[in-house]
Design brief:
five-stranded parallel beta sheet; about 35% helix; globular; about 290 residues; alpha/beta
Length: about 290
């Protein structure tokens, strides 16, 4: 998948950026959560491959009137889309849509569970910056408990021979997360040996209770500041960033930050995913799901 994204990236530098690969195909983006990067990159990826696109957000749709995900999926299935890209606050939402439709289904984030295409684009960005993946050590810092990004990234890093260490307060990096197959630390000094410092957003919208005494204390103990980043390290963030909380603006805007590289990677990787499910992946069942 990463190699395919690499080859598709060449098309972004051409004067005519559209490829005819998916002409006549329909890609539907079904987003129940707010999104800038993921939704825009999937929309643009489909258009760059000449697919027809339709984006449906929960706000302003029949979802506001109480329509269930099942009924929405069945309605979309009547249009016979080739791919449905799903983002939803509930774990397993993409799986449900895959069972209800004949479309290929791409998981664009389901609750606190998984965000597989984010993990792919992160691998792509890391490889582009460091020239390798095997043996790379990545410190994932912050609100791991509520992060689907962290769960997918830890699994993806293991697949390519890289190492992950989760860093944060005990309330946000509980012992049970060791089951993901990574190291854990509650000391910010653990990032010193990492090649990549991957900063997670404090997801206050998913915190029904106080997981830290205060954001000011969290920033003091775990915020990524210039003093905590050593030369040679690169810094990543899936966005949106809470500047001044989990990451210092001086770090976010530094040459060590790969945030814009991640955005560019998101486009080519999602082009590769759409290309793969529609031209490469064998159809082994009525519903094809790209879920991790």
């Amino acid at each position: 998948m990463l190699e395919r994204a690499e080859s598709l990236a060449a098309s972004l530098d051409r004067e005519l950026k559209k490829l005819p690969t998916l002409r006549g195909r329909m890609v539907v983006n079904l987003f129940y959560e707010s999104s800038t990067r993921t939704l825009s990159s999937f929309e643009l990826a489909a258009k760059r491959l000449s697919a027809d696109t339709m984006s449906l957000r929960s706000t302003g749709s029949s979802v506001d009137k109480g329509e269930s995900l099942k009924d929405t999926a069945l309605t979309l299935a009547a249009y016979e889309p080739d791919v449905i890209v799903v983002r939803h606050p509930s774990i397993g939402a993409a799986h449900l849509v895959a069972r209800l439709t004949d479309a290929h289904v791409v998981n664009a984030g389901d609750g606190k569970h998984q965000h597989p295409t984010q993990a792919l684009l992160d691998l792509y960005a890391i490889r582009g910056a460091l020239g390798r993946l095997e043996g790379v050590r990545v410190a994932i810092v912050g609100d791991v408990l509520h992060s689907r990004v962290a769960r997918s990234l830890v699994q993806a890093l293991a697949l390519v021979g890289a190492e992950a260490v989760l860093v944060g307060p005990p309330t946000l990096v509980p012992p049970g997360l060791a089951a993901l197959g990574c190291a854990m630390s509650h000391d910010i000094a653990a990032i010193a040996d990492a090649d990549v410092v991957y900063v997670l957003r404090m997801q206050r919208e998913r915190m029904g209770e106080a997981f830290v005494p205060s954001l000011r204390e969290y920033t003091s103990l775990y915020g990524i500041t210039p003093a905590r980043v050593r030369p040679g390290q690169v810094v990543m963030h899936p966005g949106p960033m809470n500047r001044g909380i989990e990451i210092d603006p001086r770090v976010a805007d530094s040459e060590q930050a790969l945030v814009t590289d991640q955005v560019r990677a998101g486009l080519v990787v999602r082009m590769a995913v759409l290309y793969d499910v529609l031209t490469v992946a064998p159809v082994t069942s009525p519903a094809q799901a790209v879920v991790a």
